[in-house]
Amino acid sequence: MTDTPGWAPPSSSEQPGEEGRPPAGAPTVPGQSSPIGSTPPPWGGGYGGPPPGGRQPWGGAPGGQPWGGQPWGWPQSPKPGVIPLRPLGVGEILDGAFSTVRRHWRTTLGISLGLAVLQQTVVVLVQWQSYENPDSVLPAVSALVSLPLNLLIGVVATALLTMVVSRAILGRPVTVGEAWRDSRPRVLQLVGLTLLNLLIVLGFAVVALGPLFGYLLATGSDRNPGLVGLLVLFAVAVVAAAFWILIQLSLAAPALMLEKQGIRAAFSRSRRLVRGSWWRVCGISVLGTVLVSIIAGIIEIPFSLVGVVMAGDELLGDSLTSGLDPALPLGALVVIAVGGVLGGAVTIPAGAAINVLIYVDQRIRREALDIELTRAAGLAEPGPSGPAEPGPTGPAAPAAPADGGDPAAARP
Using CA atoms, how far apart are residues 168 and 258, in angstroms rounded to an integer? Predict the structure, then answer.
């Protein structure tokens, strides 16, 4: 771990099948006794609970519950930034993502607002050309040309916002210029990784739908219903396999940006981090996507309604005449685009932050990354029996035994 936003890959070997991890100072070998002769509370379950033996903590409330939900003297998880440095719950990941947007709004909105304006400008121009030249092929060509631009916008957003989130975890401010300086050396590799992901999706789409569409086109109206059903089942199975692989590779982008690895190493790293936790990563990713989409819809729907009202009879006439998606006048397109810009300004950084925090959570669970993050944030690491020892202004710590024995034996 260094002071820069990038996090080096762990030097020790990974244990992909191990989901739990002990707190700082606890033994890492199963069955090994604790350094101080007692077993500390497990991560994620012991904090905030009663101490061993059922004793009432000092300052406890009636009924055995401590005042404030935390026993006095019980080790607290440090929280220098947007998340506590311990294995995270689903709510903490989502809250950390939106806390990043709220606390670092100047940087996150500066990035996402500029990218959203560029993206919506392209959309408005394409749709306006469709309105002005309904029989021209120019709108279709413009739409195809806008695809690489949208891909590039997504890459830049991922690169910059990953660095913002990495600083937000440590509680450190970051400007747009600093985020760009830290991410610029990895942007080209991130472009390659994104293109490979796109090729994987297209490859699975061809394998899934190619046989079905080929058979339907070749046979015309003389089709075997049983064979069509089998081809549909095959397509569903291929789509399910593609989704499984995409979740396996979903943490490759933060691994590439933060660990400064190559494309192939980032894909392999993502698979190892997701292994054994596929359902958890999938569930949080899907929940985050749904939540971000709902928020975007809440922001954009009022602007869309105003745009429809502005179009008025012209919109109704086009829809009745063509039966297809009607083109809108420029004024209505601009109003709708404003809603898209505001929605993207909030949801683009939140979506990127969710992905990065899932990656951080997996590394905390498997590699005790929280200890390295605590050190990088400049915080004292809590011991297994309580909070950190007092600093220079407090009582002096007892000297270590001269014979090199157990330090706990020297404590009063």
Answer: 14
Question: Could you tell me the sign of the dihedral formed by the alpha carbons of 148, 152, 157, 158, in that order?
Answer: positive
N-to-C CA span, the chain: 35
Do residues 347 and 296 lie in contact, with contact meaning Cβ atoms separated by under 8 Å? yes
* pLDDT one-digit tens code per residue, 163-213: 999 999 999 988 999 999 999 999 999 999 999 999 999 999 999 989 888
Give the residue extent of every domain in the chain. Answer: 90-375
pTM: 0.73
157: its two tokens: 């957003």
